[in-house]
Amino acid sequence: MFSKDIYINRRQRLKDKMNKGIALILGNIDAAMNYPDNTYHFRQDSTFLYFFGLDYQGLAAVIDFESGEEILFGNDFDIDDIIWMGPQPKLKDNALKVGVTQTHPLSKLKEIVSKAHQQGRKVHFTPPYRGENILKIGDLLNVNPLKVKEMHSIEFIKACVSLRSIKEPGEIEEMERHMAVAYQMHTTAMKMAHPGVTEQQITGILEGVSMSGGGPISFPIICSVRGETLHNHVHPNTLKSGDLLLVDAGSESPLHYATDHTRTSPVGGKFTSKQKDIYQIVVDTNNAALAATKPGITYKEVHLIAAKTMTEGLKSLGLMKGDVDEAVAQGAHALFMPHGLGHMIGLDVHDMEDYDQRLVGFDEEIQPSTQFGLAALRLGRRLQPNFVVTNEPGMYFIPDLIDQFKSEKKFTDFINYEMVETYKGFGGIRIEDDVLITETGSRVLGERIPINPEDVEAMVQSGK
Amino acid sequence: MFSKDIYINRRQRLKDKMNKGIALILGNIDAAMNYPDNTYHFRQDSTFLYFFGLDYQGLAAVIDFESGEEILFGNDFDIDDIIWMGPQPKLKDNALKVGVTQTHPLSKLKEIVSKAHQQGRKVHFTPPYRGENILKIGDLLNVNPLKVKEMHSIEFIKACVSLRSIKEPGEIEEMERHMAVAYQMHTTAMKMAHPGVTEQQITGILEGVSMSGGGPISFPIICSVRGETLHNHVHPNTLKSGDLLLVDAGSESPLHYATDHTRTSPVGGKFTSKQKDIYQIVVDTNNAALAATKPGITYKEVHLIAAKTMTEGLKSLGLMKGDVDEAVAQGAHALFMPHGLGHMIGLDVHDMEDYDQRLVGFDEEIQPSTQFGLAALRLGRRLQPNFVVTNEPGMYFIPDLIDQFKSEKKFTDFINYEMVETYKGFGGIRIEDDVLITETGSRVLGERIPINPEDVEAMVQSGK
């Protein structure tokens, strides 16, 4: 974990933003896979991690915004636990590591929280996303758990967002350090992109590279020769010559900061010229987005700059036509990129997505759009130094979506459907980097994973 | 999945055992890691898998034990889902694959279940182990979710246990086929057992071997040079010469049957003579248990035969003393093996552990013990052909437990504490196989992973 001063400082800044009530910050418990004691990799709640740093299950914290008290709750282990888990430090000692002096057994949590609740003090919490914590909050507040979800605190969320959006130097160092594992994952996938290998084999190896490198994957790996399926979490295919392999994968650092990159490789090591044309447009779009990513611009504008670059490229190939600005304004390009350009990244791969995407990615100035494509943009607001975002333009030929747009005669002024038909079966390409907003511009975190077509081809070929 | 006749037959046999009410069998939904859309590997509920076979999220089933009806509930996907997930078959078509003709959207589930509940008909379900399904059942039955856990049906559990305990030929084939992946995992670990390698690296690679081989790990990997910690899920150590590396790891087959093996390797490839003495006792105990494992014997007896073999071995080394039968009867050996010999294995690594261990592993004839050590035995009842169990004797030198027993002057007639003190720091050894009960005896499933000390040493050395 970070030094205790970091956590003390974060809590102090939180207290500076909040006036009334108490914050209830529940850690996670182990998540049951198929029975209570068979659990997934433990993942601590990110809000708990941010303010209290302790990375094991069964903890809870309360911050009293009026008295200023900070209390950690948890149970110490007995000899039976020690037989199964080995010797364990006491909660009291762990709490000191994050600058907290007041600790209680978990049984005391209900007394303190329900007392505050009964006194009419606001109990602030972020939206719970696991059933166990929903049940827990229901129990603590003595309300039916089915009512808990609507009770979260917008004020508390906004305070957390304002702190967590701007990464501290230590957070940036941790993220940058872990980019080496991301690099290894993606170059490993490139080297494996040969006919006869299965998607499942590559996925397995990448999970292993991530875990060996320090932590589990930061989200379910997308590894597919059907890249036009945006979030393809099944891996049934065997690679064959001529396929494009899209790999969207990331790893959690030891302190649980996420990486998130996408690369698309030609199976066997050589793009066809048709593939290379589309691939180059996506590279150009990624680079245009990177150049535009800087403090002061809204991320919505960066998204639209990317859309314009993409539309120009598609027009040069004859897949689109007409006025580029007008096509982008109407959202015609969303046939080819129905998702947003990117999102914030930090302790979560979609950072703070448990809170409420509108409060994380938007504000009074920039509101979410309802236009198809743009509506999927997760981040619209103005960029500030030390934000970290992903830039992930993609281009896809999705047969069902093409059929739908065509049958509804959508954007016939901008889309050359006759030519688009000949791209059915092409698949999809996405290229994604993790980008730090600096004082004056932005830079890719870590050594950039091979991106230019000849570099990707060379990396694939080196795995032969 | 299996052929539809398998599922039809299972449901028919279930209906033969049940008379009144309806069964509510909830599939799992994706489990949130750190926000709702960032999920762990999907794991379907085993009871749902057993009776309905469909391996995706958001499904539920009802079996009416009076009318005989079988209904599957789920929602079909729309174009927005298809963009993100690719084309998806309809529930109606999936249902036919498992022999079910009646399907409804999920919204209809509440109507049917709450109607039955209001009519005073028993709604049978197994104990829910995920918060989301606890909340769901609360909603369906219109009761506070905090009350749901106590409402499960013992009668329904007993019917499920009687079916699932006896593995069908197809299940045994599936399990045996996947033993090749278990073999690969454990021999990979042996080959990596060299100084300078980290536990985390090995764990990562093993997760990759499992995933590449067909499915995720079947439980969190134990990979530790501190093998005396029974369920050690942290991996902070770097291997060094003279360490013993204990690896307890398994993989899920494509149909989600578990493997579960443990091997203990000498780091660098050579047991010390002190290590070899203890190791050989554990091998002998494993073999004695295997010979005793057969239809008609109670598993409690097999456990006690293993305990006796182990005690004899410890006595020959001078670590124990006195009358062997009496030492075992009093549980003195549990200082060295505080856990049970094994458990059933199938769709779950501890098969059916979500139900209630007493209903799975015990019956009117054989009840759980309260004696330290024996109390941790998960399976006591009489073995039948086509049970599959793990045999996993182990021997550990747990400093905290030694101190506790010694200070309480426990078993001073049987334990030579002076000598035991010299084994503090030794660590632990466990050796575990998956064993099928046959008509006349038992056999290890799959090719046996190297077990004899010289074979393990050779495998480690081959990885140099």
From TrEMBL, chains A, B:
Where's the Aminopeptidase P N-terminal domain? 2-132
- What EC number(s) is this enzyme filed under? 3.4.11.9
One Pfam entry name: AMP_N
In the record, biological process GO terms are: proteolysis
Which reactions is this enzyme annotated as catalysing?
Release of any N-terminal amino acid, including proline, that is linked to proline, even from a dipeptide or tripeptide
Annotated GO molecular function terms are: manganese ion binding; metalloaminopeptidase activity
- Which CDD domains would you find in this protein's record? Prolidase (cd01087)
Q: Which InterPro entries does this UniProt record tie to the protein? A: Aminopep_P_N (IPR007865), Creatin/AminoP/Spt16_N (IPR029149), Creatinase/aminopeptidase-like (IPR036005), Pept_M24 (IPR000994), Peptidase_M24B_aminopep-P_CS (IPR001131), X-Pro_dipept-like (IPR052433)
Provide the alphabetized UniProt keywords. Answer: Aminopeptidase, Hydrolase, Manganese, Metal-binding, Metalloprotease, Protease
User: What are its cofactors?
Assistant: Mn(2+)
Q: Report the domain of life of the source organism.
A: Bacteria
Q: Which GO terms describe its cellular component?
A: cytosol
User: Does the record carry Isomerase as a key word?
Assistant: no
- On whether Cell inner membrane is a keyword of this UniProt record, the answer is no
SUPFAM superfamilies given in the database record: Creatinase/aminopeptidase (SSF55920), Creatinase/prolidase N-terminal domain (SSF53092)
Group of enzyme by EC: hydrolase
Similarity-based family: Belongs to the peptidase M24B family.
**Protein name from the UniProt record:** Xaa-Pro aminopeptidase
Species per Swiss-Prot/TrEMBL record: Plebeiibacterium sediminum
